[in-house]
Design goal:
The protein is an alpha/beta fold. 43% of the residues lie in helices and 14% in strands. It has 17 helices and 14 strands. The strands form two sheets. Strands 3-2-1-4-5-6-7-8 form an eight-stranded mixed β-sheet, with helices on both faces. A six-stranded parallel β-sheet has the order 11-10-9-12-13-14. Helix 9 packs across helix 12. The protein is globular. The structure holds nicotinamide-adenine-dinucleotide. Nicotinamide-adenine-dinucleotide binds next to helix 1 and helix 5. The site of nicotinamide-adenine-dinucleotide (NAD) has 26 residues, from helix 1 and helix 5.
Length: 437
């Protein structure tokens, strides 16, 4: 099929590349000309394992190209995927400006019937609104379908190629069948395709992310109690996770969830609830718990140093919101760095992939280290914010030698308490540091 994917970010790029890889003819359209130029040179503009290789192979095979000319991108395809951003406004409601702009572009340039697939995460009613807008403005028939994306940054390619399920929200059965056909190569392992209304699909995506965020806030609240009560939350996590009704996924306490999805989508669903006249008490709490949790490392640092923070030097390992991505949007590390700087603490950070994005945000306000150990030179403490594999079994002796004080604030609970004692570190994890709640 001839496809256009509008928006070449984390979702659009993976979508376009994977659909080209199954033999479709794909054009990636983006309003960011520099991004289009880089992609056209075969440069993968984001760090995502495996993506660059498939991108270049499909460009070489002539199935994938990138352009910034809306008119030709829209005219030449049968199916148009929308994967533009839907960032939160200051009140937490999703900003749909890019979705509406793309809708108007499609209406202006479509010269034959189109299937318009919304991949972006959007509030309930957005698909119906876009359908009405296109019915009114377009010269040709456009069928709007909602096909939410569940990929996780860091394993986006394999998530897209082996989805747990495919959700298709459509009022038009023919359009739904075309979208299902596009997914056929990815669901050969009997994964289900759930077809439903557009509104139900929109709600499914918000509900899925909010459910996972709820589990994280839940275990974080339990962890904070464990800190206060002198319990190791890992014992509790193992105790509840091995209950098959509960399981272990998304039950890891930490410095709060971040990224471009969970914080935004929980707030987005809060707005959906309010608009529907439903009081979103649970979701508001999930959001509040997370807001406080992203400050947990700073609170522990402040308490340990009894508020005498000015002039201290703190090393940070890991700044991306999770491992195997360079994405620092809403990352707990960014919140911590802001707080450290405000308190007069100097910061040196290391991340295997996200330093360029961090530099774009903080410039010369902090120092950067391309490798892990030099980050520690002369540091009064180390704060770990992302569980990259390279931090899991470090050379503790080397670390101790480089640091002014052997103190670790571990926002990802990477090390055993026993190892830390044996290695001579003062160690504060999340839900495992009796007395330092
Ligand atoms: N990142 C994820 O892990 C993830 C997972 C599932 C769903 N989503 C959802 O997918 C959507 C996109 O997320 P993302 O992380 O890929 O965003 P992103 O910011 O990485 O990419 C969005 C892209 O759209 C482009 N764009 C914006 N307006 C445009 C316009 N009018 N015309 C053409 N291009 C335009 C931008 O230049 C950018 O390249 C969001 O709604 C997000 O919630 C994201």
């Amino acid at each position: 099929m001839k496809l256009t994917v509008i928006g070449s970010g984390y979702v659009g790029l993976v979508t376009g590349v994977c659909l080209a890889d199954t033999g479709n003819d794909v054009v990636g359209l983006d309003s960011d000309v520099a991004k289009v130029d880089a992609l056209s040179r075969g440069e993968c503009v984001i760090f995502e394992p495996g993506l660059g290789e498939i991108l270049r192979a499909n460009m070489k095979a002539g199935r994938l190209r990138f352009i910034s000319d809306k008119s030709s991108a829209i005219r030449q395809s049968d199916v148009i995927f929308i994967a533009v951003g839907t960032p939160p406004r200051s009140d937490g409601s999703p900003d749909l400006t890019a979705i509406h702009a793309v809708g108007d572009d499609i209406a202006a340039h479509a010269d034959q019937p189109k299937i318009v697939v919304i991949k972006s995460t959007v509030p309930v009613g957005t698909g119906d609104d876009l359908q009405a807008r296109l019915d009114q403005k377009s010269r040709v028939k456009c069928s709007v379908v909602n096909n939410p994306e569940f990929l996780k940054e860091g394993s986006a390619v394999s998530d897209f190629q082996k989805p747990d399920r495919v959700i298709i929200g459509a009022e038009d059965a023919e359009a739904a069948a075309v979208v299902a056909e596009l997914h056929e190569p990815f669901i050969r392992n009997q994964r289900p395709v759930h077809t439903m209304t557009r509104a139900a699909a929109e709600m499914t995506k918000y509900a899925a992310n909010s459910c996972l965020a709820t589990r994280i806030s839940f275990i974080n609240q339990i962890a904070n109690m464990c800190d206060a009560l002198g319990i190791d939350v890992n014992d509790v996590r193992r105790g509840i996770g091995s209950d098959s009704r509960i399981g272990f996924q998304f039950l890891y306490p930490g410095a709060g969830y971040g990224g471009s999805c969970f914080p935004k989508d929980v707030q987005g669903l809060i707005h959906v609830a309010r608009k529907a006249g439903v009081q979103p008490d649970l979701l508001e709490s999930v959001h509040q718990v997370n807001f406080r949790q992203r400050q947990v490392l700073f609170r522990k640092i402040s308490k340990r140093f009894e508020g005498k923070l000015k002039g201290l030097s703190v090393a940070i390992w890991g700044v991306s919101f999770k491992p195997r991505t360079d994405d620092i949007r809403e990352a707990p590390a960014v919140v911590l760095i802001e707080q450290l700087l405000e308190a007069g603490i100097s910061v040196r950070a290391h991340d295997p992939e996200a330093l360029d994005n961090l530099r774009a945000l903080f410039g010369d306000r902090i120092a950067y280290s391309p490798s892990a150990y030099p980050t520690l030179d002369g540091a009064d403490a180390l704060a770990i914010c992302t569980e990259w594999n390279e931090f899991r079994s470090p050379d503790f002796e080397e670390m101790r030698k480089r640091m002014r004080k052997p103190i670790i604030f571990d926002g990802r609970n990477l090390y055993s308490l026993q190892t830390m004692r044996k290695q001579g570190f003062e160690y504060y994890g999340i839900g495992r540091s009796a007395g330092l709640a």
